[in-house]
Amino acid sequence: MTRPGARLRSAAQERAQSGLVAGADVLGRASAGARVLPGMLIAGGQRCGTTSLYQALRRQPTLFRPTWRKGVHYFDMAYAAHDLAWYRARFPLAVQLGRAARRHADRALAFESSPHYLFHPLALERIAADLPGVQLIVLVRDPVERAYSAHAHEFARGFETEPFARALDLEATRLAGEVERMVGDAAYESRAHRHQAYRSRGEYAAQLARAETLLGRGRIHVVDSHRFFAEPEVVLDEVLTFLGVRTRVATPFDRHNARPRLPLDPGLARELRAHFAPHDAALEPWLGGPPTWVAQGW
Fold first, then answer.
1. pLDDT tens digits for range 242-284
2. Residue 6: exposed, middle, or buried by beta-carbon count in 10 A (0-12, 13-18, 19+)?
3. pLDDT of residue 70
4. Predicted confidence (pLDDT) per residue in 59-87, tens digit
5. Which helix (H) or strand (E) holds 113?
6. Is residue 6's pLDDT more than 60?
7. Cα distance from N-terminal residue to C-terminal residue, the chain
8. CB-based contacts of 34, cutoff 8 Å, min separation 6
9. CA 131, 57, 214 angle in degrees (round to 5)?
10. Whether residue 90 has pLDDT greater than 90
11. Contact 54, 42 (CB under 8 A)
12. pTM
């Protein structure tokens, strides 16, 4: 049982946090014209190691995260309610980036991580229109593991109430018509599309094809997250090279947001692997070969 004193401290902390956020918002809006827009986005996928890569990148001296939280969610959640100045207000001052660029004789840029961007039906189109030249980082993970991990994540947060197998059975019904509603009403937020798309989010190649059409292949870098966790220094170096950043610093690597989970039913795992097989094959041109989970026969 939570003690009254602890509840009071928690409420006070929440009020203080809200006050800080509100103050940062006012300050950011007042100085928006002096701030930068991001030059790179970690756009997905959900439960694929985006937080771990974000933490590694934010430690680099010429890469700058948002001023308050890692994911601004402008292009998926806030676009209908706010303008580009609101978005810009959440990033560092241009003078900060200029100082870092001069100090290191290197490229400096801001970035954020919002893993719904890749999957959202309108986000990539908005990004292409509002951030010309932006670079996209996309992480992909064994889609069977990703689906199971996403279910555990959403269940723990209260967005899911059904067991995994039942949630998979319900997915098509839950998502029916949701993309059309989202496209037809920019303010509409779909709980099912964001929180209950277990199979659909793991169909990475189709999402990347849309991104390629809108942004161009040369502006997209795809990371196999299993390889990232196996050899993080090598993969981070590849990401920085893609971004045109030469400066590197020693970086501790941690796996963030991992949740313990029960073993997946083997029959259900086989069914999911058969479903994802053609989608995995279509990833090979993006990765330069089979994804880790295919190459190792998981």
1. 999 999 998 888 766 665 556 899 999 999 999 999 999 999 9
2. exposed
3. 78
4. 999 999 999 887 899 999 999 999 999 99
5. strand 109-113
6. no
7. 43
8. 93, 94, 95
9. 25
10. yes
11. yes
12. 0.89
Compute how many other C-beta atoms are within 10 angstroms of the C-beta atom of residue 49: 27
**What sections of 158-265 are H helices per DSSP?**
164-175, 178-184, 191-195, 204-215, 225-230, 232-243
287: enclosing H helix or E strand = helix 284-287
* C-alpha distance from residue 63 to each of 134, 210, 240 (Å): 14, 27, 10
State how far the Cα of 194 lies from the Cα of 159, in Å rounded to an integer.
Answer: 10
Summarize pLDDT for 187-241 with one digit per residue, the tens: 999 999 999 999 999 999 999 999 999 999 999 999 999 999 999 999 999 999 9
Pick from 141, 174, 137: nearest CA to 159: 174
CA distance 181 to 89: 29
- Which helix (H) or strand (E) covers residue 79, if one does? none
**Which among 123, 1, 94, 113 has a CA at the least distance from the CA of 55?**
113
222 SS3 class? strand
Q: H helices then E strands: how many in the chain? A: 15, 5
C-beta atoms surrounding 195 within 10 Å: 20
**DSSP 8-state code for residue 270:** H
- CA 47 to chain CA mean position, Å: 8
Measure the CA–CA gap between 274 and 278, rounded to whole angstroms.
8
Assign 245 to helix, strand or coil: coil
E strand or H helix at 16:
helix 4-30
CA-only gyration radius of the chain, Å: 20
Look at residues 71, 42, 58, 48 and name the one whose alpha carbon lies nearest to residue 229: 48
**Cis peptide leading into residue 45 (ω within 30°):** yes
